[in-house]
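Dock FE2/S2 (inorganic) cluster; give full complex structure.
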Amino acid sequence: MSFLLSCPHCGPRPVDEYAFFGEVTRRPEKSENGSPSLRELTEYVYFRDNVAGPQREWWQHRTGCGEWFLAERDTRTNEVLSITLPEPSRKHL
Amino acid sequence: MRIAQQSGERIDRDRPVVFRFGETRIGGYEGDTFGSALYAAGLRTFSRSFKYHRTRGLYCCTGHCPNCMMTVDGVPNVRVCVEPLREGAHVKEQNVWGKLDLDVLSITDKVGGPFTPVGFYYRTMIRPRRAWPLYEKVLRNLAGLGRVDERGGHSRRYDVEHRRARVLVVGGSDAGRAAALAAAREGPGVVLVDEGPRRVSELTGVEVLTPARALGIWEGGLVPVDCGTVLYRYRAERIIVATGALEQPIVFPGNDLVGVMLPSAARRLIRDFSIQPGERAVVLGADEPGLEVADDLQEAGVAVQRVVDLRETPVRELEAQRRRGRVRALLVDGEEVACDLVVASGGRQPAYSLLAQAGARVEFDSELGVFVPTTLPPGVEAVGTVTGEGLQKIDVRPKHAGRGKCFVCICEDVTTKDVKRAIAEGFDSIELAKRYTTVTMGPCQGKLCQLASIRLYAQEVRAYESDLGTTTARPPWSPVEMGLLAGRHFEPARRTSLHFRHEEAGARMQWAGPWKRPYAYGERPEDEVRAVHESLGVIDVSTLGKILVEGPEAAALLERLYPNRFADLRPGRIRYGVLTSDGGRIMDDGTIGRLSEELYYVTTTSTGADSVTAWFEWWNAVWGYEAEIVNVTGALAALNLAGPQAREALQRLTEDDVSDEALKYLDAKPLEVAGIPCLALRIGFVGELGYELHCPSPAAEFLWDRLVGDGARPFGLEPQRILRLEKGHVIVGQDTDSESNLLSAAMSWLPKLDKDDFVGKLAVEHFAEREPLERLVGFVMEDGVVPAEGAQIVIEGYPAGRITSARRSEAVGSVIGLAWLPVERADDGTRFEVRVDRRLLGGRVKSGPFYDVDGKRMRS
Ligand code: FES
Ligand SMILES: [Zn+2]
């Protein structure tokens, strides 16, 4: 892995400056129907799609400005298709 | 041996250079390489081969083959034909037992030796099994190249430098230079990398690196360039590969003998170093450049006995005959030609490896009879002969008839017989045959043997080369020193602002994660423990992670990050907190003080500062609470002043009120101590009355000096470990691991499941429904032996648990510790056994703190 990744603040930098935080997951939440099942929780905590293709994932410019952002990357070629800042949401308050 | 000055010779005859070869002093000239100077001095045998210990001499003179590898100033496997001569250097031959000319191991060659055929280890040495260590030892001595100088490890300093280029050209051929110049006309940032040894003349606007080797092409336009002791990691927008073509060996018996060489070698010796390479020569060639060398030889005074143009004379039988490992005659279809030099080339093959690594397709061009790159990856271009341009068709037999060993791969000593044997044994793909015979896996990385082996293979299995394809090209393109890849040898240490005070006080420093911390100051850590129990101690806890969380929603953020409550914490108060993952596992712990309505001061474990900060920031990127997270670990130092006299000592240094009413247990309060603004946290990690004083790092030495001057005894990490263990305080990461959760680690009181949400809540809820399998408990050993951390607990003969901490405590009067036990064995008083060396020693579960059970002392 030696591709370049564009920080939303700092621009293209070698990937070693970043921390990878895995694919974007959906955190199960309580609803009117009650708590998520153990199965749903386990899926969220331990299972990943591990796609061969475009994947949405978390990155942090760890040794740079520190920003957390989302990248869409093709896991086969390391081509970065898009970079976005997250849109925070406090669901389940 | 030198001939008259050649036009363009590289040596400067007015500047002699002297070096040592073994015990002999040898002279050369500035501009020579070690190889050329040795050749000029009459040396012909440069090394012994990898497996058969056959004599080998200069073969390519371009740094591509294994033949001239020697140890120079302790560095093994230096290709001396391209290594510039250095005054006073010490050169030694390698892979030789005895003398270069008479190597005792070369009998493995003559008697056919037991260690010769390919696959021999795999088939023969598997039985008896227990004899393998012996075989291995013998084999290790027999095989291999060079020897690492174990003491010389740090004698050379290597560096890695990151650089950028707009255009990076690899290869200083005509095409490469032209491409570099053209690029330079368009703007700056053009770099040309050339292997040398012939200098590329100055090119306007181009930075020329030579001798230097591009090791590979990685994604993102990354090209590491080996410049000896510096590795440049280039990022290039455009990469132009102009690596040219490589002369290929002809496969015939005796083709490895000393005196057989490629035209490049003969030409270099003559033109660059003005050396006459031999007396009588035979030239075998399959293309113009391979035949033209005959003119060079003649001009240099070599009697050219015969020139064989293999395109016109399809020779069937070819055999080099030897005397004492050197060629003495060449048999050409039955006719013997006496000679001491055979310059043989089977045509040229594009040097496509870098392109192939970068992702280019490489295909067999049946017009040319060689492999050429076809489609190139984006950002990578190829110019010149590497594309196949200007090459002539290779039309040489894959192997020639004759008696004696016939080498396909001189690096790994693989013969045509070995390849045939591999095919006979069923290795029916080129990649498998490669792994079995190890052909192309030596120092040349296939430069001189890939084409030959594929052509031979194709002939043997009656297939087309185009159907076989090539084996995968992998970096590095040429051998590289491990030190260069590792970079400069250094181990960064984090030091607290009190580091030198500890050293002055004679502390034994130890690693604690990335930090250096005092283990203890004296020989007996127990004495430091006693000082804390009986009077007063002080410990540097600056390594604690320190994070400020500030903002109108700081409380809401922490409330959701931690399993327990922080929104209801009153300003000026402190609460212990443990972070869990969404899987419910324990991640880190620390104290959280609320300094005001909107400001919290969070401490973490010594190794957790960075990861906890990132963790907080990540969750807040998801949630978006109005709160700022600032890691102030380096900005602040922290000293823990602990012991029954702590209050009086503190009061002596401050005008603020530190009475128990004004600064209660678990209070956080700003104080001015000895004139230094501090944040005092009254907590009791070590079990006695104590104050953590957090102050600006630059003031820490001053504060430390005042406290120590006032009678506080410095104590180290080891005494602290004993003290906290006496209290049964858990160290996250020591007593817990990535499987531990709050309920099993005896902290079931901590998570507040009536909270709406916190990280790990769903998991903790699920844990709460079932009894844990294991529990973390305290124990006392029966007979005073301290078991190792990690020691196995045995119940009824079966492994059932493990010790995570154990120490002897004078205050408790026994050996105490923490251990994980099966839940049904974790009740107070239950007996278990621990494996200590080969014995089983008894211990008993004991719940609760071992010392000051009701916590009166730290609350006093
Ligand atoms: S002769 Fe030096 S590497 Fe081939
Ligand atoms: Zn950045």
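Observed: The longest helix of chain A spans residues 38-46.
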